[in-house]
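Dear colleagues,

As part of the handover before I leave the project, I'm documenting each prediction I ran so the next person doesn't have to rerun anything. This entry is a single chain, and its sequence is reproduced below.
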Amino acid sequence: MASSALPPLLPKVDAILVLDGDGNRLAGKYYGDFMKTPSPADGGADAAADNAAAAQSVEQLRNSFERQLQSKIGGTSARPDAAEVVTVLGKTAVFCGGSPMGQGGSGDVRVVHIGPAGESELVLAHLVEGMYEALSHLMGGSTDRAMVLDNLELVFLLIDEHCDGGIILETDGQKLAGSVLLRDEHENTMGQGMEGHGGGGMHGQPPMQSSGGMSMGMGMGGDMTIGQALMQARNQIMANLNQT
């Protein structure tokens, strides 16, 4: 029987989480059936109530899992290039970041990848290290809780560029950061174009403020608008990435 070439195996994860020092989820996504309860039957007078109860049940299930995860990783920090590995409910959890004991939620965030049974720890470590590197680039070298909260839209864009439906798309930190900035710039440009058609002339905030919290050491003096300042910040980051 003739042998057929198998396609290369793509790394897969069950969840990607960005947690603060207290284990609170700042951003993240669960994939597939991991941490999900059976969906209620459609139709019926109580369908809306059943759907709301099911959604609440799923969130409670995930919160419980994250509390157990925090009990394993709380107070532990992992270098960006040396991910740590723990096991939670039979799942392999690999993370980078975090702060030593005592700093609580105000310290650096942790990027966590939850892998399915059988996934290599080395592969998961490579994935999480790449995403953490990209996050650090996007946050201007700082991964503390306040910076991440100020730039949550960039964080969610990063997760989407990194993973789709649990399948890993890109692992290189610099490429990930560049893709996120280009996508965010495109969406901001589209939003500003729509605002211009509305004839608004207002000097308020732009439609999208995903990079509003980025601390690039820039002044906004003169006639520079917020949108122009953000564009200059993105160009500076892109230039830094191209030089490395």
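Residues 1-7, 199-222 have pLDDT under 50 and may be disordered. Helices lie at 47-73, 121-138, 145-150, 152-162, 173-197, 226-243.

All the best with the project,
I.
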